[in-house]
Design goal:
The complex is a heterodimer. Chain A is an all-alpha fold. Chain A has a domain of about 100 residues: Orthogonal Bundle (Cytochrome Bc1 Complex, Chain D, domain 2), CATH 1.10.760. Helices cover about 50% and strands about 5% of the residues of chain A. The longest helix of chain A is centred in the N-terminal third of the chain and has 17 residues. Chain A starts with a helix and ends with a helix. By secondary structure, chain B is an all-alpha fold. Chain B folds into two domains: about 70 residues, no CATH class; about 50 residues, no CATH class. Chain B is about 35% helix and about 0% strand. Chain B is built from seven helices and no strands. The radius of gyration of chain B is 17 Å and the shape is globular. The relative contact order of chain B is 0.12. At the A-B interface, α5 of A face loops of B.
Chain lengths: ~140, ~170
């Protein structure tokens, strides 16, 4: 039997867990980087690699051969869905504070879009690099 | 008297139907989020419950994209769509494309081929190209802006209606 006290404690733990999971682009990068380090010891996210990933021509999908087909090349402005024409909000957290603040959402879209554009799921390393690139902005 | 009331009811519902503005539904956050990412979240009234069931059962091949949801979200969204679904043949299409329903075809009969192929429109799925406030649930005629400056288009209907107000 769960007493009121126990329920209360359970609720407090839940609330605590919630706030502990307040996510930021940086914390999401760290999560993917930790995962990548398991396969590649010493892995460190690279904005430069992230940029190449973003502009890479995959050539898998006719209509979506690369990320920029829908997202555009400029991280700070809206993209446009290449088929439906729908506006896609910018990647840059400065232009769109909601970006990369939910790892579940980030994971959902990597899964969907990587399969669509790359024809496979993306690796943790690719995800870490890409978000690192978004945080740091365009690399020269 | 009863007969008159029934007549008024039919008339009333026909008017509601004929008026493309009445597409508001209680917002469902999951529907809005999941169905409103790649295209706007299309109003549930625009397909029948049966159409929605088939559509939600085939999200792995959703008009060329894999839009699979987790089973719980899928069910919740399907329930919502069916609760507010349209009825009858006018809201039904075997292709499951809203743009193939008799209702859609009729409502858009004044839109020219030039407009449909305008780069700013491109696709019949791109409602907001013309219904600029559709994402906020505003489908009123006064909210229509046809790209390419063909302003006369789509306004004949407003003319027919005379002084009828579009926003209600």
């Amino acid at each position: 039997m769960m007493t009121a006290g126990k329920i209360c404690i359970a609720l407090m733990v839940l609330a605590g867990a919630n706030s502990a999971f307040a996510e930021t682009p940086a914390s999401i990068v760290s999560g993917y980087a930790a995962e990548a380090a398991k396969a590649t010891p010493g892995f460190a996210p690279s904005a430069k690699r992230g940029q190449s990933f973003f502009t890479r021509e995959w050539g898998v999908s006719r209509e979506m051969p690369n990320c920029t087909a829908c997202h555009g090349r400029n991280l700070k402005v809206d993209g446009k869905h290449v088929i439906t024409g729908k506006r896609i909000s910018p990647f840059a957290p400065a232009a769109n504070p909601e970006r990369f603040t939910s790892s579940a959402k980030v994971e959902k879209w990597f899964k969907r879009n990587c399969n669509e554009v790359a024809g496979r799921e993306c690796t943790a390393a690719e995800k870490a690099d890409f978000i690192q690139f978004v945080i740091q902005g365009e690399q020269s | 008297m009863k007969w008159l009331a029934a007549f008024a009811l039919i008339l009333g519902s026909t008017m509601v139907y004929a008026d493309g503005n009445k597409l508001s539904v209680p917002a469902n956050p999951k529907w809005k989020e999941e169905c409103g990412s790649c295209h706007i979240a299309y109003p549930p009234q625009l397909l029948t419950g049966d159409n929605w069931q088939r559509l939600m059962g085939g999200l792995d091949k959703h008009f060329g994209a894999n839009a699979t949801l987790n089973p719980g979200d899928n069910q919740e969204i399907l329930d919502f769509l069916q609760r507010h679904a349209g009825r009858g043949g006018r809201n039904s299409a075997s292709s499951l494309r809203i743009s193939d329903t008799p209702w859609f075809t009729r409502e858009h009969r004044e839109v020219s081929n030039n407009t449909w192929s305008d780069p700013a429109v491109k696709s019949r799925s791109n409602c907001t190209a013309c219904h600029v406030n559709a994402e906020r649930g505003d489908w009123s005629e006064r909210g229509i802006r046809i790209p390419g400056g063909q302003r006369g288009e789509g306004q004949g209907e407003r003319h027919e209606r005379g002084g009828e107000r579009d926003d209600d």
